Amino acid sequence: MQFALPPRRSLHTLPGANSSRLPLYRRKQLKTIAIFAFAVLTLLYLLSRLFSSSSTSLSPPAGTAGMVIVTLLDRQSLSESYINKIVTNREDYAKRHGYTNFFASVSDYEEAIGDAPRSWALIPAMRHAMATYPKSKYFFHLSPHALVMNPTTSLKSHLLDRSRLESLMLKNVPIVPPDSIIKTFALKQKDVDLILTQDGEDLSPSSFILKNGDFARFFLDLWFEPLFRSYRFAKAETHGLDHIMQWHPTVLARTALVPQRILNAYSKDSSGASQDGSYKDGDFVIRFPSCDEGKARDCDELDPYYSMWSKKAKST
């Protein structure tokens, strides 16, 4: 009688193939790797969010025009009480519209301006603001001797909307009053990078809006050219700006001139305003040019208007 022999183990069978201990070990090993990989990915994600939030903290809040208000303060010539009034005025306005304030000190730029008048510091202050908030779309330079008098008015509705800006632009008028042969162009809103006013004698860089971009950097570098600062213009950076606009059509072709009261109304006690450049109730901004002379640490001319603004701000 023949009996069936048990099947021979294959010579090709891997050692331990039938053991349950090795697969269990592998499963534990894979599980450990998976947990470690998950931990690494989680850490990388958290780090990316951390650095992303720190980098985007310079970005304007969602839903705003990306506006940075630049105020240059000369703390050597202004009292703390006066500075507090200006800061309070700016902070109230920025908070209402989601804008950002950038307060600069003239002393921070003394090395950059060298022997030139201290008023030239507004240009490196603007560059500093642009470097600090590189994703903001607009930069609004406003004199420390000016108040925002209409706090509920946004710059978008007041000036930057396409139809609004194009309706306000002064076309074919002397760029430097009263009779410069160089005149403003007729522009479309999309072609405008710089918005300025003029008073009765000159362009007025005390209050202007600059759109962020290559033109802005080129314009500020040109304006801060050492050769211009060495000319010793009677009105320093103001006459430097007059010169640029009349001799550099590349800059003029990106500049919109608007009526003085839109952005830079002078107080009634100030001289030098354009024909319709003196402040009227309801105007957006009032400026006090005589305060620029720096004869006193407080500008008394500002006080009654500050009181008017405070009452309006509290009631709106």
TrEMBL record:
Which GO terms of the cellular component aspect does the record hold?
mannan polymerase complex
Q: Which residues cross the membrane?
A: 30-51
Gene3D superfamilies given in the database record: Spore Coat Polysaccharide Biosynthesis Protein SpsA, Chain A
Superkingdom, natural source: Eukaryota
Q: Name one GO biological process term.
A: protein N-linked glycosylation
Keywords annotated in UniProt: Glycosyltransferase, Membrane, Transferase, Transmembrane, Transmembrane helix
Q: Which InterPro entries does the record match to this protein?
A: Glyco_trans_34, Nucleotide-diphossugar_trans
Q: Name one GO molecular function term.
A: alpha-1,6-mannosyltransferase activity
Pfam families the UniProt entry points to: Glyco_transf_34
Keyword field contains Nuclease: no
Q: Indicate whether rRNA-binding appears among the record's keywords.
A: no
Record family assignment: Belongs to the glycosyltransferase 34 family.
Tell me what this protein is called: Alpha-1,2-galactosyltransferase C8D2.17
Q: What does the organism's lineage look like at the top?
A: Eukaryota, Fungi, Dikarya, Ascomycota, Pezizomycotina
